[in-house]
């Protein structure tokens, strides 16, 4: 085996992956800015934002399978020169994203009783519902933008997506400053003001992506928006069958983290605020791996469309090694600089800040523990989605996160009495099992020729 043959794969992976990483980091930066600004506003609003965004993200995760699922399909169709398949899959993914968003809106509109039933404090549940009644409408543009992101990434045109997402950051900060704190003559709306800022940015980004997808010369032959109101029932069924398991997989993983938020809320508001900060810092590094996972989906989809097992093997090895390197760098940063990172989120003059900082710094050790396994599981999922294998990964995710991760988290935190650290050890356990099983499935399938017509040599 010679390393020279991997050079084109590294170049292609980074050329595709880095803009996707930039898009995810920019999107994450918007959430971070919300958390920082609301954290400066108050502890109860911060706890409410953490719970509300967890609830929103759970709905988002379930619906994002349609947009993510078509990425590999479109990449394979482009390699085959099947323009109709590109158009039909992308268009029906947009349809399903819209239908799903409308169906789940009532859950966010009446979220307070749900959160109270899950053991959250009344003041936190009430503020969370205030946020979700506005921010919930953002599900439509977010899922639509995700589908367009997949459409453009499969054509290896992700740079404008990154720029559009990045442009939303200063707009979000400005609108938060106006409506959260009540500046420039606007009323002080608290968490509702933050929700208005988020929704405004999401709509703006979606509109810009639509404009770019319509303008892009290489995309014009696919005629994505031509007679977009006409349903294509067979394509819709195919996208649904592919995307729903992905959505359920995302819910299984996201639900593990949402569940940890809920259980941390049982322990205390300070602990929940600290947990949210540590988890968001870990999520920032996850965005890098998620972008690389998207690149893995496109590269695996291209290999499948070309029926090239050797290409798939080398592309998969490349993206996996790149992700491992990033994970090890994150471990070093989390271990060496936890306090400065945590302190960015809180007002130093607030009386509760020192206690929250100490808890969050303590949790950063555990955030470092799952960097490698979190990276490997999302890369494996990206590769499997590229070869359109989604049902068994869904089962693996459900078992790993809910039959292993969640019981371990609860048992260590409450039965064994370890507390917050026990919740994080449960996260580590679930992610580690998922990483092992998902990687095994992809490489075993590749070796046996399941993803192409011939098994891979070596």
Automatic annotation (TrEMBL):
Keywords: Antiport, Cell membrane, Ion transport, Membrane, Transmembrane, Transmembrane helix, Transport. GO terms for molecular function: antiporter activity; xenobiotic transmembrane transporter activity. InterPro entries: MATE_fam (IPR002528), MATE_MdtK (IPR050222), MdtK-like (IPR048279). GO terms for cellular component: plasma membrane. It is a multi-pass membrane protein. The keyword Ribonucleoprotein does not apply. The chain crosses the membrane at residues 45-78, 90-111, 131-153, 160-182, 194-217, 238-260, 272-294, 315-337, 359-383, 395-415, 421-440. It is found in: Cell inner membrane. One of its GO terms (biological process) is monoatomic ion transport. Pfam families: MatE. This is Multidrug-efflux transporter. It comes from Paracoccus sulfuroxidans.
């Amino acid at each position: 085996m010679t390393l020279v043959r991997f050079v084109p794969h590294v170049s292609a992976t980074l050329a595709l992956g880095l803009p996707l990483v930039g898009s995810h980091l920019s999107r994450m930066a918007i959430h971070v800015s919300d958390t920082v600004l609301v954290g400066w506003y108050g502890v109860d609003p911060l706890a409410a934002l953490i719970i509300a965004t967890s609830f929103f993200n759970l709905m988002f995760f379930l619906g994002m399978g349609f947009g993510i699922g078509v990425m590999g399909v479109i990449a394979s169709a482009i390699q085959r020169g099947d323009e109709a398949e590109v158009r039909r899959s992308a268009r029906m993914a947009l349809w399903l994203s819209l239908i799903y968003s409308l169906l789940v809106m009532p859950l966010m509109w009446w979220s307070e009783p749900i959160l109270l039933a899950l053991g959250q404090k009344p003041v936190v549940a009430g503020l969370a519902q205030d946020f979700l009644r506005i921010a919930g409408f953002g599900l439509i543009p977010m899922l639509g933008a995700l589908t367009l992101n997949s459409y453009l990434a499969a054509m290896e045109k992700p740079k404008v997506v990154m720029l559009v997402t990045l442009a939303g950051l200063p707009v979000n900060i400005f609108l938060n400053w106006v409506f959260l704190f009540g500046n420039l003559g606007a009323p002080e709306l608290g968490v509702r003001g933050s929700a208005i800022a988020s929704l405004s940015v999401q709509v703006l980004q979606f509109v810009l992506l639509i404009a770019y997808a319509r303008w892009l010369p290489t995309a014009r032959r696919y005629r994505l928006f031509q007679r977009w109101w006409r349903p294509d029932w067979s394509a819709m069924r195919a996208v649904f069958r592919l995307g729903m398991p992905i959505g359920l997989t995302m819910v299984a993983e996201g639900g593990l983290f949402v569940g940890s938020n809920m259980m941390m809320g049982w322990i205390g508001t300070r602990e929940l605020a600290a947990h949210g900060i540590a988890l968001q810092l870990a999520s920032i590094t996850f965005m890098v791996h998620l972008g690389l996972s998207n690149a893995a989906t496109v590269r695996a989809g291209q290999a499948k469309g070309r029926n090239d097992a050797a290409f798939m093997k080398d592309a998969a090895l490349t993206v996996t090694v790149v992700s491992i390197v990033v994970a090890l760098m994150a471990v070093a940063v989390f271990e060496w600089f936890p306090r400065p990172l945590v302190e960015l989120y809180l007002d130093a003059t607030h009386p509760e800040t020192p206690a929250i900082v100490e808890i969050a710094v303590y949790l950063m050790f555990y955030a470092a523990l799952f960097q490698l396994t979190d990276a490997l599981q999302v890369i494996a999922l990206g590769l499997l989605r590229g070869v359109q294998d989604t049902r068994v990964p869904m089962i693996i995710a459900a078992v790993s996160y809910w039959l292993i991760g969640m019981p371990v988290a609860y048992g260590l935190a409450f039965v064994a009495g370890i507390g917050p650290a026990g919740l994080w050890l449960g996260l580590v356990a679930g992610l580690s099992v998922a990483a092992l099983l998902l990687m095994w499935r992809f490489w075993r399938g590749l070796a046996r020729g399941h993803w192409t017509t011939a098994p891979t040599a070596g």
